[in-house]
Amino acid sequence: MTSVPTAATSATPTTGEVPGEAAALARQGRFPTDFLWGAATASYQIEGAVAEDGRTPSIWDTFSHTPGKTENGDTGDVAVDHYHRSAEDVALMARLGLGTYRFSVSWSRVQPTGRGPAERRGLDFYRRLTDDLLARGIRPMVTLYHWDLPQELEDAGGWPERETAYRFAEYAALVGEALGDRVELFTTLNEPWCSAFLGYGSGVHAPGRTDPVDALRAAHHLNLAHGLGAQALRSSVPAGRTPKIAVSLNPSAVRARTAAPEDEDARRRIDALANRVFTGPMLHGAYPEDLLADTARLTDWSFVQDGDARTACQPLDLLGINYYAPAIVSGGRVDGPRDDGHGASAHSPWPAADDITFHQAQGERTAMGWGVDPTGLYDLLTKYAAEAPGVPLLVTENGAAYPDAPDAQGRFHDPDRIRYLHGHLSAVLDAIRDGADVRGYYLWSLLDNFEWSYGYGKRFGAVHVDYDTQVRTPRSSAHWYARAARDGVLPPADFRPEPDAG
């Protein structure tokens, strides 16, 4: 199970300037000239059309239609109707000057039963979307899995079952065959921690199960799926094409509340559960020994077969980092709700860690209740630059939800989000200055959307969406971001667009 670590590296950079030149520009407050300025979305959060053109239910369809699972009983049935408005949305991206767009493919739209042949109509939608992006000079980045497992696979056991990893590889091959002639950048999984530990541990995400051993089993099979999926992508794309493979993790910037030994040990244990459970196999071909010891009272990890961790350790061309807020922990249990920022549940997403307490940082918070701390992003970028030398980094998600309302002219000015973006992109610049090979940044999110169990009550979009009319209105932050992308320099944090900005 714990094979000798093997570093995963990329032989050739995918984009961007050599790190020394990038660092020199960063010291001048400038981003590399070919830095990727993008935005990201996820299929179930924006597409709607859940029963059209052969699509079948995913676990999020089932979960959101289960009473009490989402705020106000909201579902993604319509979402922001991107399935019918994709051309409009691509035109909006072009007006905002985006150079790249990260979107996810709905597995149950492409392979309705989670096995067998592809649904042509589903693939055709993603072909059209990709072609529209390329025609506008926008580089597509395709995420294969952003949490919407076909319900039939969940009925067969879901991610705690090994077979699901093999079904994912089959699905990855279908997408590679269909889009590999026009897409270069692929992400296998988005935030597998959430899929495993929120979906099968705390139950606040689909499918809503609450078994800590199943959560660990799911984490392993997601690692295996990543490796098998990367292999399938590389073997399935058309001859002469070389896909660039990434995975988008949401590593936690874990900090001990004090220097006390019990707090430092809490930091180590949560680092293992939040981060090294994935980076161990994916980057080094082995699970951390301390993770296995910490969770030994729950499982002997016999679901890990010989060679699995090596399979998970496929060469990465890019490592995606999603970041929102740090985690502050201490040893010892404190009575009251768990304040880890991952939703309210009587069940913990942290197996064998019930004696650890989570604390939120003091100071400004977003509408999600998350602390605003750009230093956590800097810490993660420099950490993984050192841990995986030779693997370029992407910030594949970063953003914030804030409440806002239109002014008398119907404009949406969001100074809090602008300050948030200014602070976090400044942290990216600092990381590049200090030697991290960061190739791009994807704002979460392009559009307001269905925010999982929070329904439509939390708005992350640079573009406001009126959910009744589906009218899209760029907020001030969208114009701020467009100027940053155009100039390669961050506009001031107190930026306000001209009144006639459209």
Note down, in words, how this protein is organized:
This protein has about 500 residues and is α/β, with parallel strands linked by helices. It has 16 helices and 13 strands. The chain has helices at about 20-25, 45, 60-65, 80-95, 105-110, 120-135, 150-155, 165-180, 190-200, 210-235, 260-285, 290-295, 310, 375-385, 415-435, 475-485, and strands spanning about 35-40, 100-105, 140-145, 185-190, 245-250, 255, 320, 325-330, 355-360, 395-400, 440-445, 465, 470-475. An 8-stranded parallel barrel has the order 1-2-3-4-5-7-10-11, surrounded by 4 helices. The longest helix is centred in the middle third of the chain and has 25 residues, at about 210-235. It comes from Streptomyces albidoflavus. Its EC number is 3.2.1.21.
Which features does this protein show?
alpha/beta, hydrolase, glycosidase, about 15% strand, disordered N terminus, about 500 residues, three-stranded mixed sheet, single chain, Glyco_hydro_1_AS, 16 helices, carbohydrate metabolism, cellulose degradation, globular, eight-stranded parallel beta barrel, 13 strands, about 40% helix
